[in-house]
Design brief:
Keywords: Membrane, Transmembrane, Transmembrane helix. The chain is rod-shaped and about 35 Å long. The chain has one helix at about 5-25. It is mainly alpha-helical and about 25 residues long. The chain has one helix and no strands. It is about 80% helix and about 0% strand.
Length: about 25
Amino acid sequence: MDFPFPLNLAIASFMASFLFMLARTFA
């Protein structure tokens, strides 16, 4: 994936928060 740095950081942050929310829902 060749994304610009800010976009890459935003995607990583969104993925992390989404996975955290998913884990909290199933925990």
